[in-house]
Amino acid sequence: MKILLVLNPVSGGVDKANFLDQAKNFCTKYGYNLQMFETSGKDDEDKLKQQIQDFEPARVIAAGGDGTLLFTAKVLRKTGIPMGIVPLGSANGMATELFVNPNPVEAFKDALISQVFAGLDMLLVNNKHYSLHIGDVGINASIVESYSKDKNRGMATYAKYFIDELSRMEPFNITVKANNKTISEKGLMVGLCNARKYGTGIPLNIEGNPMDGKFEIVILKNLDLPTLIKAGLASFDERFHDSQNSLVISTDKAEVLFDKPMLLQLDGEVIGRFEKLDIAIDKHAIKLISHNDLILKTK
User: Fold this and answer.
1) Which of 84, 107, 141, 185 could lock 61 by a disulfide, CB 3.0 to 4.6 Å apart?
2) Is the separation of the CB atoms in 235 and 203 below 8 Å?
3) Looking at the predicted structure, is the pLDDT value of residue 192 above 90?
4) What is the domain range of residue 35?
5) Would you tell me how many other CB atoms lie within 10 Å of the CB of residue 101?
6) In sequence order, what are the residues at sequence separation of 6 or more whose Cβ sits closer than 8 angstroms to the Cβ of residue 158?
7) Cα distance between residue 83 and residue 57, in whole Å
8) What is the spatial distance between Cα 263 and Cα 243, in angstroms, rounded to a whole number?
9) How far is CA 21 from the centre of its chain?
């Protein structure tokens, strides 16, 4: 069987040498034909498409964080080629959401042998930009922008910028048109959720399902100390999730408007500033290599 491993060599600041050695040895031992594709940040999408066309893999496995997973998914979208996940980023939010084995070597083996597949949704924003996990506008997008410019990685660096943004945050006007209704609110953040939790484990909503053909818009209205404490506790136990400070809208398409251009990030990538977002679900865009535990947990 031909296997293409898509690897981000710098994701999460994680040393991938040990994983690669074990993955190559496993494929050699059991007769898998393994090829590698390493992202470089230059023409990666075109290069990956060409390698897939030339190699014709039976499966493609994304090894990295949420950004690597999204990059791979955009190339595989609607191709029918199964995609597996190996968590090798700093947070691995979507891998956690999809109950991928947290051990990279075991996750790699699962992606090789599983015969269980699931239809994974994607979000399409402004007919151009995609998201698999979570996007947002507001305080977190500003944190992500600062984090992306820092040569250091990991949760400590993220926390530094989180504290900095807390001192500067201001509410902004938000209008959401969805489900034949118009809702106007003030908030500190708007989450665009195909999944439920950030990579930190903190849930934005606890009802989302990345395979149900819908997504959730979450308007965070307040972010004081009690809210932060509850958010931290909710990362360990969802019963602490604070639904009082947020508004959740479940839909398959929506229009979100702001009173000024606002910064948007999708799956950890800063996209730009927008006054209007048109969001639609791309149902079952990806053929995900999965397992029956996930299928049961998302029903």
Assistant:
1) 84
2) yes
3) yes
4) 2-113
5) 17
6) 90, 143, 147
7) 11
8) 24
9) 27
Give pLDDT, residue 290.
Answer: 92
CA distances from 278 to 124, 130, 257 (A): 8, 12, 9
Of residues 282 and 162, which shows the higher confidence score?
282
Q: What is the mean pLDDT of the chain?
A: 84
pLDDT exceeds cutoff 50 at 237: no
**Distances, alpha carbon 62 to alpha carbons 34, 48, 170, in Å:** 13, 12, 37
Same domain, 32 and 102: yes
Same domain, 177 and 107: no
**Any domain includes 166:** yes
E strand segments, the chain: 2-7, 33-38, 59-64, 83-87, 116-125, 129-131, 134-138, 172-178, 181-187, 189-193, 215-220, 246-251, 253-266, 269-290
* Predicted confidence (pLDDT) per residue in 114-137, tens digit: 999 999 999 999 999 999 998 889
Q: What is the mean pLDDT of residues 190-219?
A: 84
